[in-house]
Design goal:
mainly alpha; Leucine-rich Repeat Variant; about 65% helix; two-stranded antiparallel ribbon; single chain; 2 strands; 2 domains; about 300 residues
Length: about 300
């Protein structure tokens, strides 16, 4: 108990220093907090919602620091803090970071990076083993907060009727699509894919394919979206994969899609075939003709 009280007092003292005008002092305080969070003596935080909430608030504030070294140190602290947080504190932290990704006043790569750091640190299911209670709890927080934000607009916390928060994968009128948001999605699928429900996989697939099929998506964003769909397909059921292939075939058959969209869809077929050849093999007879028709001599001459 004495050790716990000393650790609590030290934490509160260090958090107070995050308001100091000296950037070096703020950095050193975060460095000391990192030492505490990676020490077994801080394990009590999982049962101390008050202290863990104060820590989360302090780190969130430090993410908006004007000095990059301080921001980076705060990001470093989020990983070990995440595994110490009780579910009741982890969920609000994810919500606050997700809300910051739509900010027009800060560098949104920072909250997106913070989300990736946290998701990557959380307990995850292990291949060939039943999911542990800790992994299931972590997935519950991710499923409650991040999956809805990655798959479309969500009701605003303001409670005003009809008020919605923009989805992380939606196109911003001034910034376009966010490759950082796609990287968050990839991290969620990589870490928690085996636990994702089919409805979640379908919704995530729709968000990714909307980018792949968008003429205005830039090269970097499109490449990240292709990586995302290749990660998702590994967790598709046979029924979902059949539906995905049917939709892909119907779109490729349309005369209304542009050459850019057709290229992106062919690229999607390619990355999925490389990533999941055994799953995708039975569908090659359906999709291969679309690829061959585009790389035929007539189309090549038209492109030239």
């Amino acid at each position: 108990m004495a050790d716990r009280q000393i650790t609590q007092q030290t934490i509160f003292s260090l958090l107070a220093k995050l308001d100091d005008p000296d950037a070096d002092l703020r950095y050193m305080s975060l460095n000391d907090l990192y030492g505490i969070l990676t020490n077994p003596n801080s394990s009590f935080l999982s049962h101390d919602r008050g202290t863990s909430t104060k820590l989360a608030e302090g780190l969130l504030k430090a993410l908006d620091d004007q000095h990059g070294d301080v921001q980076n140190q705060a990001l470093k602290c989020l990983g070990p803090l995440a595994v110490r947080l009780p579910f009741e504190s982890l969920t609000p932290l994810l919500e606050q970071l997700a809300n910051l990704t739509s900010s027009q006043t800060i560098d949104t790569s920072i909250p997106n990076t913070a989300l990736r750091v946290i998701v990557d640190t959380l307990p995850r299911p292990q291949a060939g083993q039943p999911a542990s209670q800790n992994a299931t709890t972590a997935y519950s927080a991710v499923s409650k907060v991040l999956v809805p934000r990655l798959t479309g607009p969500t009701p605003s916390a303001s409670g005003r009727r009809g008020s919605l928060v923009k989805g992380m994968m939606e196109k911003d009128p001034s910034k376009g699509f966010s490759s950082d948001a796609i990287d968050v999605l990839i991290k969620v699928v990589t870490c928690f894919g085996p636990l994702l429900q089919e409805t979640e996989l379908v919704a995530l697939q729709a968000s990714v394919m909307a980018i792949i099929q968008n003429d205005t998506a830039g090269t970097v964003v499109t490449k990240r979206a292709l990586t995302a769909i290749s990660a998702l397909v590994l967790h598709f059921s046979d029924t979902q994969l059949n539906s995905f292939v049917s939709n892909l075939s119907a779109t490729m058959s349309s005369s209304k899609i542009s050459m850019v969209q057709r290229r992106h869809l062919i690229a999607a077929i390619g990355v999925i075939a490389r990533t999941a050849p055994a799953k995708f093999g039975p569908h090659l007879d359906t999709l291969a003709p679309f690829v061959f028709s585009v790389v035929g001599e007539d189309n090549i001459s038209k492109e030239n």
